[in-house]
Amino acid sequence: MGLLEQLGLIRLFGLMGLLGQLGLIRLFGLMGLIGLLFFLDFFFLWTSFRLLLWTFLDFFFG
Q: Which partner for 62 in 29, 36, 50, 58 could form a disulfide, CB atoms 3.0-4.6 Å apart?
């Protein structure tokens, strides 16, 4: 593959990727935000649960 073909493909895929990214951001923006909030909630719940568990185990078996 020549350099010009490579640059053309990079430019073409870059434009397609940019348009697709904007479309995906617009399409999945709300879903992604909700998913991120759920993930953060789960992450903080899990870390607080681990801290509680460690404190509990340390208190009784420490």
A: 58
Neighbouring C-beta atoms of residue 57, cutoff 10 Å:
10
* Cα separation, 54 vs 27, whole angstroms: 41
CB under 8 Å to 26, separation ≥6 — which residues? none
CA distance 45 to 32: 19
Is residue 44 predicted with pLDDT exceeding 70? Answer: yes
pLDDT at 62: 63
**What is the residue whose two structure tokens read 């020549």?**
2
Distances (CA, A) of 62 to 22, 31, 52, 58: 53, 44, 14, 4
